[in-house]
Amino acid sequence: MRREGGMREITDRDISLTFAKGMGVLKAFDTGATHLTLPQIARTTGLDRASARRLVLTLVHLGYVKQDERVFSLTPRILVLASGFLQAHQFGKTIEPVLRAFSQQISDAISMAMIDGLQAVYVAHAGAGNRPASIGFTVGSRVPLLPSAIGRALVAACPPDKMRGLIAAAPLERFTDRTVLDRGAVAADIALTAERGFAFVEGEFEAGVSAVATPVRSESGETASLGISGSASRLADEGYRNQVVDTLRECSKAVAALL
Amino acid sequence: MRREGGMREITDRDISLTFAKGMGVLKAFDTGATHLTLPQIARTTGLDRASARRLVLTLVHLGYVKQDERVFSLTPRILVLASGFLQAHQFGKTIEPVLRAFSQQISDAISMAMIDGLQAVYVAHAGAGNRPASIGFTVGSRVPLLPSAIGRALVAACPPDKMRGLIAAAPLERFTDRTVLDRGAVAADIALTAERGFAFVEGEFEAGVSAVATPVRSESGETASLGISGSASRLADEGYRNQVVDTLRECSKAVAALL
DNA sequence: ACGAAATGTGCTATTATCGCGCATTTGCTA
DNA sequence: TAGCAAATGCGCGATAATAGCACATTTCGT
User: Fold this and answer.
1) Which of A61, A163, B187, B224 is 20 to 30 A from A76, comparing alpha carbons?
2) Is residue A5 assigned to a domain?
Protein backbone atom coordinates (compact mmCIF):
# COMPACT_ATOMS: atom_id res chain seq x y z
CA MET A 1 0.00 0.00 0.00
CA ARG A 2 1.37 3.40 -0.89
CA ARG A 3 -0.05 6.77 0.03
CA GLU A 4 0.11 9.36 -2.71
CA GLY A 5 -0.91 12.97 -2.70
CA GLY A 6 -3.24 12.82 0.27
CA MET A 7 -5.88 10.91 -1.62
CA ARG A 8 -6.74 7.31 -1.10
CA GLU A 9 -3.79 5.07 -1.03
CA ILE A 10 -2.57 3.65 -4.29
CA THR A 11 -2.45 -0.08 -3.82
CA ASP A 12 -0.24 -2.48 -5.74
CA ARG A 13 -3.35 -3.57 -7.56
CA ASP A 14 -3.88 -0.05 -8.89
CA ILE A 15 -0.53 -0.06 -10.66
CA SER A 16 -0.21 -1.22 -14.22
CA LEU A 17 3.01 -3.16 -14.21
CA THR A 18 3.42 -3.25 -17.96
CA PHE A 19 2.88 0.48 -18.28
CA ALA A 20 5.41 1.12 -15.53
CA LYS A 21 7.94 -1.04 -17.33
CA GLY A 22 7.29 0.85 -20.53
CA MET A 23 7.87 4.15 -18.78
CA GLY A 24 11.12 2.72 -17.50
CA VAL A 25 12.15 2.12 -21.10
CA LEU A 26 11.23 5.68 -22.02
CA LYS A 27 13.19 6.97 -19.04
CA ALA A 28 16.28 5.11 -20.17
CA PHE A 29 16.78 7.72 -22.87
CA ASP A 30 18.56 10.19 -20.67
CA THR A 31 21.24 12.80 -20.71
CA GLY A 32 24.16 10.45 -20.78
CA ALA A 33 22.45 7.85 -22.92
CA THR A 34 20.53 9.50 -25.70
CA HIS A 35 21.16 6.81 -28.31
CA LEU A 36 20.64 3.28 -27.11
CA THR A 37 20.79 -0.24 -28.47
CA LEU A 38 18.34 -2.87 -27.41
CA PRO A 39 20.78 -4.66 -25.09
CA GLN A 40 21.58 -1.32 -23.45
CA ILE A 41 17.90 -0.64 -22.88
CA ALA A 42 17.44 -4.12 -21.45
CA ARG A 43 20.39 -3.65 -19.11
CA THR A 44 19.33 -0.21 -18.00
CA THR A 45 15.78 -1.27 -17.28
CA GLY A 46 16.53 -4.73 -15.96
CA LEU A 47 14.00 -6.20 -18.35
CA ASP A 48 14.32 -9.32 -20.40
CA ARG A 49 15.52 -8.43 -23.86
CA ALA A 50 12.33 -9.64 -25.52
CA SER A 51 10.22 -7.49 -23.21
CA ALA A 52 12.44 -4.48 -23.69
CA ARG A 53 12.23 -5.00 -27.44
CA ARG A 54 8.44 -5.02 -27.46
CA LEU A 55 8.24 -1.93 -25.30
CA VAL A 56 10.73 0.11 -27.30
CA LEU A 57 9.10 -0.98 -30.55
CA THR A 58 5.83 0.26 -29.12
CA LEU A 59 7.46 3.65 -28.61
CA VAL A 60 8.74 3.53 -32.17
CA HIS A 61 5.26 2.70 -33.36
CA LEU A 62 3.80 5.60 -31.39
CA GLY A 63 6.38 7.96 -32.82
CA TYR A 64 8.23 8.89 -29.66
CA VAL A 65 11.34 6.92 -30.58
CA LYS A 66 13.03 6.31 -33.88
CA GLN A 67 15.25 3.43 -34.89
CA ASP A 68 18.33 3.82 -37.05
CA GLU A 69 19.63 0.30 -37.62
CA ARG A 70 20.45 -0.89 -34.15
CA VAL A 71 20.21 2.42 -32.38
CA PHE A 72 17.10 3.89 -30.82
CA SER A 73 16.70 7.58 -29.95
CA LEU A 74 13.94 10.03 -29.07
CA THR A 75 12.02 12.03 -31.66
CA PRO A 76 10.71 15.60 -31.34
CA ARG A 77 7.33 14.14 -30.46
CA ILE A 78 8.57 13.50 -26.97
CA LEU A 79 8.52 17.27 -26.49
CA VAL A 80 4.78 17.26 -26.99
CA LEU A 81 4.44 15.37 -23.71
CA ALA A 82 6.26 18.18 -21.97
CA SER A 83 4.15 20.90 -23.48
CA GLY A 84 1.08 19.96 -21.48
CA PHE A 85 2.95 20.91 -18.34
CA LEU A 86 4.52 24.01 -19.83
CA GLN A 87 1.20 25.23 -21.18
CA ALA A 88 -0.59 24.52 -17.93
CA HIS A 89 1.71 26.99 -16.25
CA GLN A 90 1.88 29.34 -19.21
CA PHE A 91 5.63 29.49 -19.00
CA GLY A 92 6.02 30.70 -22.53
CA LYS A 93 3.35 33.37 -22.34
CA THR A 94 3.85 34.89 -18.94
CA ILE A 95 6.89 33.68 -17.05
CA GLU A 96 9.61 33.66 -19.66
CA PRO A 97 8.95 37.27 -20.69
CA VAL A 98 9.33 38.26 -17.03
CA LEU A 99 12.53 36.27 -16.65
CA ARG A 100 13.83 37.85 -19.83
CA ALA A 101 13.07 41.38 -18.73
CA PHE A 102 14.90 40.90 -15.45
CA SER A 103 17.73 39.00 -17.07
CA GLN A 104 18.35 42.01 -19.25
CA GLN A 105 18.72 44.20 -16.18
CA ILE A 106 21.76 42.23 -15.12
CA SER A 107 22.81 40.93 -18.54
CA ASP A 108 22.75 37.38 -17.34
CA ALA A 109 20.52 34.38 -17.84
CA ILE A 110 17.89 33.52 -15.25
CA SER A 111 16.71 29.98 -14.79
CA MET A 112 13.65 28.76 -12.96
CA ALA A 113 13.42 25.40 -11.25
CA MET A 114 10.84 23.33 -9.45
CA ILE A 115 11.06 20.34 -7.20
CA ASP A 116 10.77 16.87 -8.63
CA GLY A 117 11.12 14.27 -5.92
CA LEU A 118 14.53 14.83 -4.40
CA GLN A 119 15.98 16.93 -7.15
CA ALA A 120 15.42 20.19 -8.96
CA VAL A 121 14.19 20.37 -12.52
CA TYR A 122 14.61 23.39 -14.77
CA VAL A 123 11.23 24.55 -16.01
CA ALA A 124 12.12 27.81 -17.74
CA HIS A 125 15.01 30.02 -18.57
CA ALA A 126 15.66 33.23 -20.43
CA GLY A 127 18.50 35.42 -21.44
CA ALA A 128 22.11 34.88 -22.34
CA GLY A 129 24.48 33.57 -19.72
CA ASN A 130 27.87 35.03 -19.15
CA ARG A 131 29.76 31.84 -18.66
CA PRO A 132 30.79 29.12 -21.04
CA ALA A 133 28.09 26.54 -20.83
CA SER A 134 29.76 23.39 -19.58
CA ILE A 135 26.71 21.23 -20.07
CA GLY A 136 24.00 23.38 -21.56
CA PHE A 137 21.01 23.34 -19.31
CA THR A 138 17.63 23.19 -20.92
CA VAL A 139 14.10 22.74 -19.79
CA GLY A 140 14.04 19.35 -18.10
CA SER A 141 17.63 19.43 -16.92
CA ARG A 142 18.12 18.23 -13.38
CA VAL A 143 20.34 19.56 -10.66
CA PRO A 144 20.74 18.24 -7.14
CA LEU A 145 18.92 20.01 -4.36
CA LEU A 146 21.53 20.33 -1.68
CA PRO A 147 24.84 21.36 -3.30
CA SER A 148 23.35 23.87 -5.72
CA ALA A 149 22.05 27.38 -5.06
CA ILE A 150 18.89 26.93 -7.06
CA GLY A 151 18.24 23.68 -5.20
CA ARG A 152 18.76 25.22 -1.79
CA ALA A 153 16.46 28.10 -2.64
CA LEU A 154 13.88 25.54 -3.71
CA VAL A 155 14.12 23.73 -0.41
CA ALA A 156 13.94 27.04 1.43
CA ALA A 157 10.72 27.85 -0.39
CA CYS A 158 9.00 24.81 1.07
CA PRO A 159 6.90 24.59 4.23
CA PRO A 160 8.98 23.57 7.28
CA ASP A 161 7.95 19.90 7.33
CA LYS A 162 8.76 19.38 3.71
CA MET A 163 11.96 21.34 4.10
CA ARG A 164 13.10 19.07 6.90
CA GLY A 165 12.20 15.99 4.92
CA LEU A 166 14.10 17.14 1.85
CA ILE A 167 17.18 18.09 3.85
CA ALA A 168 17.15 14.68 5.48
CA ALA A 169 16.56 12.66 2.32
CA ALA A 170 18.01 14.48 -0.67
CA PRO A 171 21.30 13.05 -1.91
CA LEU A 172 24.43 14.78 -0.76
CA GLU A 173 27.48 13.83 -2.75
CA ARG A 174 30.68 15.41 -3.83
CA PHE A 175 30.76 17.39 -7.10
CA THR A 176 33.86 19.49 -6.52
CA ASP A 177 36.48 19.74 -3.88
CA ARG A 178 34.40 22.55 -2.41
CA THR A 179 31.21 20.55 -2.01
CA VAL A 180 29.96 20.72 1.56
CA LEU A 181 29.10 17.20 2.68
CA ASP A 182 28.01 18.12 6.19
CA ARG A 183 24.26 17.84 6.13
CA GLY A 184 23.98 20.04 9.17
CA ALA A 185 25.97 22.81 7.52
CA VAL A 186 23.79 22.58 4.42
CA ALA A 187 20.70 22.74 6.59
CA ALA A 188 22.04 25.86 8.24
CA ASP A 189 22.68 27.47 4.87
CA ILE A 190 19.16 26.64 3.76
CA ALA A 191 17.79 28.21 6.93
CA LEU A 192 19.90 31.27 6.16
CA THR A 193 18.52 31.23 2.63
CA ALA A 194 14.99 31.23 3.97
CA GLU A 195 15.80 34.05 6.34
CA ARG A 196 17.69 36.42 4.10
CA GLY A 197 15.85 35.50 0.91
CA PHE A 198 18.65 34.16 -1.25
CA ALA A 199 21.17 31.39 -1.51
CA PHE A 200 24.78 31.84 -2.52
CA VAL A 201 26.84 28.79 -3.40
CA GLU A 202 30.46 29.04 -4.44
CA GLY A 203 31.95 26.24 -6.40
CA GLU A 204 30.14 23.44 -4.56
CA PHE A 205 28.32 22.06 -7.55
CA GLU A 206 30.52 23.10 -10.46
CA ALA A 207 34.17 23.95 -10.11
CA GLY A 208 34.83 27.60 -10.69
CA VAL A 209 31.15 28.41 -10.87
CA SER A 210 29.13 30.25 -8.29
CA ALA A 211 25.43 30.80 -8.19
CA VAL A 212 22.80 32.96 -6.55
CA ALA A 213 19.22 31.85 -6.22
CA THR A 214 16.01 33.03 -4.62
CA PRO A 215 12.94 31.15 -3.41
CA VAL A 216 9.59 31.74 -5.09
CA ARG A 217 6.36 31.17 -3.20
CA SER A 218 2.96 31.89 -4.59
CA GLU A 219 -0.23 32.60 -2.69
CA SER A 220 -1.60 29.28 -3.79
CA GLY A 221 1.32 27.39 -2.28
CA GLU A 222 3.26 26.69 -5.44
CA THR A 223 7.00 26.81 -4.96
CA ALA A 224 9.88 27.36 -7.34
CA SER A 225 13.22 29.11 -7.37
CA LEU A 226 15.17 31.38 -9.67
CA GLY A 227 18.87 31.21 -10.17
CA ILE A 228 21.83 32.79 -11.88
CA SER A 229 25.20 31.19 -12.16
CA GLY A 230 28.46 32.63 -13.31
CA SER A 231 32.16 32.41 -12.89
CA ALA A 232 33.20 32.32 -9.29
CA SER A 233 35.36 35.40 -9.71
CA ARG A 234 32.54 37.46 -11.14
CA LEU A 235 30.11 36.60 -8.36
CA ALA A 236 32.76 37.13 -5.75
CA ASP A 237 32.36 40.86 -6.50
CA GLU A 238 30.03 41.92 -3.73
CA GLY A 239 28.66 44.91 -5.62
CA TYR A 240 27.70 42.83 -8.60
CA ARG A 241 26.35 40.09 -6.37
CA ASN A 242 24.12 42.45 -4.46
CA GLN A 243 22.81 43.75 -7.74
CA VAL A 244 22.06 40.21 -8.80
CA VAL A 245 20.37 39.44 -5.49
CA ASP A 246 18.17 42.51 -5.71
CA THR A 247 17.17 41.72 -9.25
CA LEU A 248 16.40 38.10 -8.45
CA ARG A 249 14.32 39.13 -5.47
CA GLU A 250 12.22 41.47 -7.54
CA CYS A 251 11.93 38.87 -10.25
CA SER A 252 10.81 36.28 -7.70
CA LYS A 253 8.00 38.54 -6.57
CA ALA A 254 6.85 39.04 -10.12
CA VAL A 255 6.99 35.31 -10.85
CA ALA A 256 5.19 34.42 -7.62
CA ALA A 257 2.30 36.60 -8.70
CA LEU A 258 2.08 34.58 -11.90
CA LEU A 259 2.13 31.08 -10.47
CA MET B 1 2.11 -5.58 -40.20
CA ARG B 2 3.55 -2.10 -40.17
CA ARG B 3 6.77 -0.88 -41.67
CA GLU B 4 8.65 1.59 -39.50
CA GLY B 5 11.88 3.43 -40.09
CA GLY B 6 13.21 1.17 -42.77
CA MET B 7 14.00 -1.62 -40.35
CA ARG B 8 12.14 -4.85 -40.09
CA GLU B 9 8.47 -4.47 -39.92
CA ILE B 10 6.84 -4.00 -36.58
CA THR B 11 4.15 -6.60 -36.30
CA ASP B 12 1.09 -6.38 -34.13
CA ARG B 13 2.73 -8.90 -31.87
CA ASP B 14 5.61 -6.52 -31.26
CA ILE B 15 3.33 -3.87 -29.79
CA SER B 16 2.60 -3.77 -26.10
CA LEU B 17 -1.06 -2.90 -25.96
CA THR B 18 -1.10 -1.95 -22.33
CA PHE B 19 1.89 0.35 -22.73
CA ALA B 20 0.29 1.99 -25.74
CA LYS B 21 -2.88 2.59 -23.76
CA GLY B 22 -0.86 4.10 -20.96
CA MET B 23 0.87 6.46 -23.37
CA GLY B 24 -2.56 7.45 -24.60
CA VAL B 25 -3.42 8.47 -21.06
CA LEU B 26 -0.23 10.50 -20.81
CA LYS B 27 -0.97 12.15 -24.13
CA ALA B 28 -4.41 13.22 -22.89
CA PHE B 29 -2.75 15.92 -20.81
CA ASP B 30 -2.52 18.42 -23.60
CA THR B 31 -2.61 22.10 -24.29
CA GLY B 32 -6.35 22.50 -24.01
CA ALA B 33 -6.75 19.93 -21.28
CA THR B 34 -4.02 20.30 -18.70
CA HIS B 35 -6.12 19.38 -15.68
CA LEU B 36 -8.27 16.32 -16.11
CA THR B 37 -10.71 14.23 -14.10
CA LEU B 38 -10.83 10.52 -14.42
CA PRO B 39 -14.00 10.48 -16.53
CA GLN B 40 -12.39 13.05 -18.86
CA ILE B 41 -9.34 10.87 -19.25
CA ALA B 42 -11.51 7.86 -19.94
CA ARG B 43 -13.48 9.76 -22.57
CA THR B 44 -10.43 11.21 -24.26
CA THR B 45 -8.66 7.88 -24.45
CA GLY B 46 -11.71 5.75 -25.12
CA LEU B 47 -10.71 3.45 -22.29
CA ASP B 48 -12.94 1.92 -19.71
CA ARG B 49 -12.93 4.01 -16.57
CA ALA B 50 -11.33 1.29 -14.47
CA SER B 51 -8.49 0.89 -16.97
CA ALA B 52 -7.98 4.60 -17.26
CA ARG B 53 -7.90 4.84 -13.50
CA ARG B 54 -5.21 2.20 -13.15
CA LEU B 55 -3.08 3.79 -15.84
CA VAL B 56 -3.31 7.32 -14.49
CA LEU B 57 -2.64 6.07 -10.97
CA THR B 58 0.47 4.41 -12.35
CA LEU B 59 1.59 7.79 -13.65
CA VAL B 60 0.86 9.31 -10.25
CA HIS B 61 2.87 6.56 -8.62
CA LEU B 62 5.77 7.16 -11.00
CA GLY B 63 5.65 10.87 -10.28
CA TYR B 64 4.73 12.17 -13.71
CA VAL B 65 1.21 13.13 -12.67
CA LYS B 66 -0.18 14.53 -9.46
CA GLN B 67 -3.69 14.24 -8.10
CA ASP B 68 -5.47 17.06 -6.31
CA GLU B 69 -8.78 15.63 -5.16
CA ARG B 70 -10.46 14.69 -8.39
CA VAL B 71 -8.14 16.47 -10.76
CA PHE B 72 -5.01 15.05 -12.32
CA SER B 73 -2.23 17.16 -13.86
CA LEU B 74 1.36 16.80 -14.98
CA THR B 75 4.33 17.38 -12.70
CA PRO B 76 7.72 18.88 -13.61
CA ARG B 77 9.07 15.35 -13.88
CA ILE B 78 7.44 15.07 -17.28
CA LEU B 79 10.05 17.56 -18.50
CA VAL B 80 12.76 15.07 -17.70
CA LEU B 81 11.45 12.88 -20.49
CA ALA B 82 11.95 15.73 -22.90
CA SER B 83 15.46 16.47 -21.79
CA GLY B 84 16.85 13.30 -23.34
CA PHE B 85 15.91 14.66 -26.74
CA LEU B 86 17.05 18.19 -26.00
CA GLN B 87 20.39 17.00 -24.67
CA ALA B 88 20.92 14.63 -27.57
CA HIS B 89 20.81 17.63 -29.87
CA GLN B 90 22.57 19.96 -27.45
CA PHE B 91 19.95 22.61 -28.01
CA GLY B 92 20.80 24.42 -24.82
CA LYS B 93 24.54 24.40 -25.31
CA THR B 94 24.96 25.14 -28.97
CA ILE B 95 21.78 26.00 -30.82
CA GLU B 96 20.03 28.39 -28.50
CA PRO B 97 23.08 30.64 -28.16
CA VAL B 98 23.19 30.89 -31.96
CA LEU B 99 19.49 31.64 -32.16
CA ARG B 100 19.91 34.25 -29.47
CA ALA B 101 22.80 35.98 -31.19
CA PHE B 102 20.89 36.26 -34.44
CA SER B 103 17.67 37.22 -32.70
CA GLN B 104 19.48 40.19 -31.22
CA GLN B 105 20.47 41.36 -34.69
CA ILE B 106 16.84 41.88 -35.54
CA SER B 107 15.49 42.37 -32.05
CA ASP B 108 12.97 39.62 -32.51
CA ALA B 109 12.54 36.08 -31.26
CA ILE B 110 13.62 33.15 -33.41
CA SER B 111 11.99 29.77 -33.08
CA MET B 112 13.20 26.47 -34.38
CA ALA B 113 10.92 23.63 -35.37
CA MET B 114 11.19 20.05 -36.52
CA ILE B 115 8.77 17.68 -38.14
CA ASP B 116 6.71 15.33 -36.05
CA GLY B 117 4.44 13.25 -38.19
CA LEU B 118 2.24 15.69 -40.07
CA GLN B 119 2.89 18.69 -37.91
CA ALA B 120 5.68 20.94 -36.75
CA VAL B 121 6.99 20.91 -33.21
CA TYR B 122 8.95 23.74 -31.64
CA VAL B 123 12.27 22.44 -30.39
CA ALA B 124 14.03 25.67 -29.42
CA HIS B 125 13.54 29.40 -29.26
CA ALA B 126 15.45 32.43 -28.13
CA GLY B 127 14.99 36.12 -27.82
CA ALA B 128 12.10 38.42 -27.11
CA GLY B 129 9.30 38.65 -29.60
CA ASN B 130 7.79 41.92 -30.68
CA ARG B 131 4.20 40.88 -30.67
CA PRO B 132 1.76 40.19 -27.89
CA ALA B 133 1.90 36.45 -27.33
CA SER B 134 -1.56 35.16 -28.04
CA ILE B 135 -0.80 31.65 -26.92
CA GLY B 136 2.77 31.56 -25.75
CA PHE B 137 4.68 29.02 -27.71
CA THR B 138 7.15 26.87 -25.82
CA VAL B 139 9.27 23.90 -26.56
CA GLY B 140 6.85 21.19 -27.54
CA SER B 141 4.21 23.50 -28.99
CA ARG B 142 2.76 22.31 -32.25
CA VAL B 143 1.84 24.23 -35.35
CA PRO B 144 0.36 22.90 -38.55
CA LEU B 145 2.67 22.33 -41.48
CA LEU B 146 0.78 23.85 -44.37
CA PRO B 147 -0.76 27.15 -43.24
CA SER B 148 2.26 28.35 -41.25
CA ALA B 149 5.56 29.76 -42.49
CA ILE B 150 7.69 27.64 -40.20
CA GLY B 151 5.75 24.57 -41.31
CA ARG B 152 6.18 25.35 -44.99
CA ALA B 153 9.88 25.92 -44.56
CA LEU B 154 10.05 22.56 -42.80
CA VAL B 155 8.37 20.84 -45.68
CA ALA B 156 10.63 22.65 -48.12
CA ALA B 157 13.65 21.34 -46.23
CA CYS B 158 12.67 17.74 -46.96
CA PRO B 159 13.78 15.55 -49.82
CA PRO B 160 11.33 15.67 -52.76
CA ASP B 161 9.54 12.39 -52.01
CA LYS B 162 8.89 13.28 -48.44
CA MET B 163 7.92 16.80 -49.43
CA ARG B 164 5.31 15.46 -51.82
CA GLY B 165 3.98 13.07 -49.23
CA LEU B 166 3.65 15.78 -46.59
CA ILE B 167 1.94 18.19 -48.98
CA ALA B 168 -0.54 15.47 -49.89
CA ALA B 169 -1.26 14.27 -46.38
CA ALA B 170 -0.80 17.12 -43.93
CA PRO B 171 -4.05 18.65 -42.70
CA LEU B 172 -5.17 21.81 -44.42
CA GLU B 173 -7.88 23.63 -42.53
CA ARG B 174 -9.01 27.17 -42.04
CA PHE B 175 -7.46 29.23 -39.22
CA THR B 176 -8.26 32.72 -40.45
CA ASP B 177 -10.16 34.21 -43.29
CA ARG B 178 -6.84 34.42 -45.11
CA THR B 179 -5.98 30.75 -44.85
CA VAL B 180 -5.24 29.32 -48.29
CA LEU B 181 -7.16 26.06 -48.62
CA ASP B 182 -6.04 25.26 -52.15
CA ARG B 183 -3.52 22.46 -51.72
CA GLY B 184 -2.06 23.21 -55.13
CA ALA B 185 -1.42 26.83 -54.20
CA VAL B 186 0.23 25.76 -50.95
CA ALA B 187 2.39 23.31 -52.86
CA ALA B 188 3.45 26.11 -55.20
CA ASP B 189 4.38 28.31 -52.26
CA ILE B 190 6.42 25.52 -50.75
CA ALA B 191 8.21 25.04 -54.05
CA LEU B 192 8.89 28.78 -54.05
CA THR B 193 10.15 28.49 -50.49
CA ALA B 194 12.58 25.80 -51.51
CA GLU B 195 13.75 27.85 -54.45
CA ARG B 196 14.19 31.24 -52.87
CA GLY B 197 15.16 29.93 -49.45
CA PHE B 198 12.40 31.38 -47.29
CA ALA B 199 8.68 31.23 -46.67
CA PHE B 200 6.49 34.26 -46.07
CA VAL B 201 2.98 33.73 -44.78
CA GLU B 202 0.62 36.63 -44.09
CA GLY B 203 -2.21 36.07 -41.72
CA GLU B 204 -2.99 32.54 -42.83
CA PHE B 205 -2.40 30.89 -39.49
CA GLU B 206 -3.03 33.70 -37.04
CA ALA B 207 -5.09 36.74 -37.83
CA GLY B 208 -3.01 39.87 -38.06
CA VAL B 209 0.21 37.91 -37.72
CA SER B 210 2.74 37.30 -40.45
CA ALA B 211 5.77 35.11 -40.37
CA VAL B 212 9.01 34.47 -42.19
CA ALA B 213 10.79 31.14 -42.02
CA THR B 214 13.78 29.43 -43.57
CA PRO B 215 14.59 25.75 -44.13
CA VAL B 216 17.53 24.17 -42.35
CA ARG B 217 19.30 21.18 -43.85
CA SER B 218 22.35 19.60 -42.33
CA GLU B 219 24.99 17.55 -44.07
CA SER B 220 23.78 14.50 -42.23
CA GLY B 221 20.25 14.91 -43.57
CA GLU B 222 18.62 16.37 -40.49
CA THR B 223 15.98 18.94 -41.29
CA ALA B 224 14.47 21.78 -39.30
CA SER B 225 13.29 25.31 -39.89
CA LEU B 226 13.65 28.68 -38.25
CA GLY B 227 10.91 31.24 -37.98
CA ILE B 228 10.03 34.71 -36.87
CA SER B 229 6.54 35.97 -36.53
CA GLY B 230 5.28 39.45 -35.96
CA SER B 231 2.43 41.79 -36.63
CA ALA B 232 1.32 41.75 -40.21
CA SER B 233 1.93 45.46 -40.56
CA ARG B 234 5.49 45.21 -39.36
CA LEU B 235 6.43 42.40 -41.71
CA ALA B 236 4.66 44.11 -44.59
CA ASP B 237 7.59 46.55 -44.54
CA GLU B 238 9.77 45.14 -47.28
CA GLY B 239 12.97 46.63 -45.92
CA TYR B 240 12.47 45.09 -42.53
CA ARG B 241 11.35 41.83 -44.05
CA ASN B 242 14.44 41.56 -46.22
CA GLN B 243 16.55 42.18 -43.16
CA VAL B 244 14.74 39.40 -41.35
CA VAL B 245 15.15 37.08 -44.31
CA ASP B 246 18.86 37.73 -44.54
CA THR B 247 19.33 37.17 -40.84
CA LEU B 248 17.32 33.97 -40.85
CA ARG B 249 19.28 32.68 -43.81
CA GLU B 250 22.56 33.25 -42.06
CA CYS B 251 21.19 31.76 -38.89
CA SER B 252 20.01 28.69 -40.79
CA LYS B 253 23.49 28.10 -42.12
CA ALA B 254 24.95 28.35 -38.66
CA VAL B 255 22.34 26.00 -37.22
CA ALA B 256 22.76 23.51 -40.06
CA ALA B 257 26.41 23.24 -39.19
CA LEU B 258 25.45 22.30 -35.66
CA LEU B 259 22.88 19.65 -36.36
C1' DA C 1 37.51 -17.39 -40.19
C1' DC C 2 35.72 -17.66 -35.82
C1' DG C 3 33.40 -16.48 -31.82
C1' DA C 4 30.69 -13.41 -29.26
C1' DA C 5 27.00 -10.47 -29.31
C1' DA C 6 22.85 -9.16 -31.16
C1' DT C 7 18.48 -9.83 -33.60
C1' DG C 8 13.94 -11.58 -34.76
C1' DT C 9 10.50 -14.48 -33.50
C1' DG C 10 7.71 -18.79 -32.38
C1' DC C 11 5.57 -20.70 -28.61
C1' DT C 12 3.45 -21.82 -24.20
C1' DA C 13 2.57 -21.16 -19.39
C1' DT C 14 1.46 -17.68 -16.45
C1' DT C 15 -0.14 -13.66 -14.79
C1' DA C 16 -1.49 -9.17 -15.46
C1' DT C 17 -5.28 -6.93 -17.29
C1' DC C 18 -9.93 -5.87 -18.33
C1' DG C 19 -14.36 -4.69 -17.42
C1' DC C 20 -18.45 -5.54 -14.94
C1' DG C 21 -21.04 -4.49 -11.09
C1' DC C 22 -21.80 -2.94 -6.48
C1' DA C 23 -21.52 0.12 -2.55
C1' DT C 24 -20.36 4.57 -1.36
C1' DT C 25 -19.36 9.40 -1.96
C1' DT C 26 -19.80 13.87 -3.98
C1' DG C 27 -21.74 17.72 -6.23
C1' DC C 28 -25.47 20.17 -8.15
C1' DT C 29 -30.07 21.79 -8.57
C1' DA C 30 -34.76 22.65 -7.37
C1' DT D 1 -32.74 19.90 2.46
C1' DA D 2 -33.67 16.14 -0.52
C1' DG D 3 -33.02 13.81 -4.54
C1' DC D 4 -30.65 12.52 -8.43
C1' DA D 5 -26.88 12.15 -11.47
C1' DA D 6 -22.19 11.69 -11.75
C1' DA D 7 -18.12 10.09 -9.89
C1' DT D 8 -15.19 7.11 -7.03
C1' DG D 9 -13.05 2.97 -5.13
C1' DC D 10 -12.56 -1.65 -5.57
C1' DG D 11 -13.64 -6.87 -5.48
C1' DC D 12 -13.62 -10.47 -8.58
C1' DG D 13 -13.20 -13.93 -12.26
C1' DA D 14 -12.39 -14.86 -17.14
C1' DT D 15 -9.30 -14.21 -20.58
C1' DA D 16 -6.28 -11.83 -23.28
C1' DA D 17 -1.86 -9.98 -23.00
C1' DT D 18 2.60 -10.66 -21.45
C1' DA D 19 6.97 -12.75 -20.11
C1' DG D 20 10.64 -15.32 -21.09
C1' DC D 21 12.82 -19.24 -23.06
C1' DA D 22 15.03 -21.14 -26.87
C1' DC D 23 16.35 -21.45 -31.54
C1' DA D 24 17.92 -19.94 -36.03
C1' DT D 25 20.02 -16.27 -38.18
C1' DT D 26 22.67 -12.09 -38.66
C1' DT D 27 26.17 -8.83 -37.48
C1' DC D 28 30.38 -7.19 -35.76
C1' DG D 29 35.00 -7.26 -34.12
C1' DT D 30 39.47 -9.37 -33.79
Assistant:
1) B187
2) no
